[in-house]
Specification:
This protein is mainly alpha-helical and 207 residues long. The chain is built from 12 helices and no strands. The chain is 59% helix and 0% strand.
């Protein structure tokens, strides 16, 4: 029973709680590790599995895996972040988008990565004023994004914070929502203020 709770905790920390029933599937991935390009975790399009197996790399490190900071404290940090995104996001989409973007920003290496992630793309569309819900040429849109923002800046927490400040301002203006909406991000969340200081401090959480 205890192992089941630990397994579910670990899965949720990587956003994989909907797969916590698939123990045989996860066991196979963990047994293969991530060293080989043909390993299942590396072949899946959903990168969450690769991240999970990389942290819980029993195939390479055996029992030592559980002694690493990324496995212990790192998993707890992920769980806290994941839960925060779900809780805040359930009350406001803008909060969810901002938190998600902040968590994923440093992993972005090209404009195409943004185009391939609907949540991140929505933040970029809001900040840059790009058309939403229209069929556009992927290459042309990627080029436009690269012209209007430096992808490398997404690895800088301070620049990501400034981008999110612009996002919250534009989002709030577009949605025209009164107190208790995206004002949550800028400090107006009644009874549980989620200020930009908090968003910025979350950068310190291990990913």
């Amino acid at each position: 029973m205890k192992n089941d709770r630990v397994f579910k905790f670990a899965m949720k920390s990587f956003g994989l709680e909907d797969m916590d029933y698939a123990k045989a599937f996860m066991k196979k991935m963990l047994s293969e590790g991530v060293e080989s390009r043909t390993a299942m975790a590396n072949r899946l399009s959903d990168k969450r599995y690769g991240e999970f197996v990389k942290v819980f790399n029993f195939a390479r490190y055996g029992e030592l895996t559980t002694t690493f900071a990324a496995t212990g404290a790192g998993t707890v940090d992920r769980y806290v972040r994941q839960t925060l995104e779900e809780t805040a996001g359930a009350q406001n989409e803008g909060v969810r988008l901002a938190l998600y973007f902040q968590r994923k920003a440093s992993s972005v290496t090209s404009a195409y990565a943004l185009l391939g992630d609907p949540a991140m793309l929505k933040v970029v569309q809001t900040v840059l004023g790009l058309p939403v819900g229209q069929r556009t040429d992927v290459d042309a849109t990627a080029k436009l994004i690269e012209q209007r923002m430096k992808i490398a800046d997404l690895k800088n927490p301070e620049k990501v914070q400034k981008l999110l400040q612009r996002f919250t301002a534009v989002w709030d203006a577009k949605t025209s929502v009164a107190t208790g909406s995206v004002d949550q991000i800028s400090g107006g969340f009644a009874g549980g203020g989620m200020s930009l200081d908090l968003l910025y401090s979350l950068q310190k959480l291990r990913r």
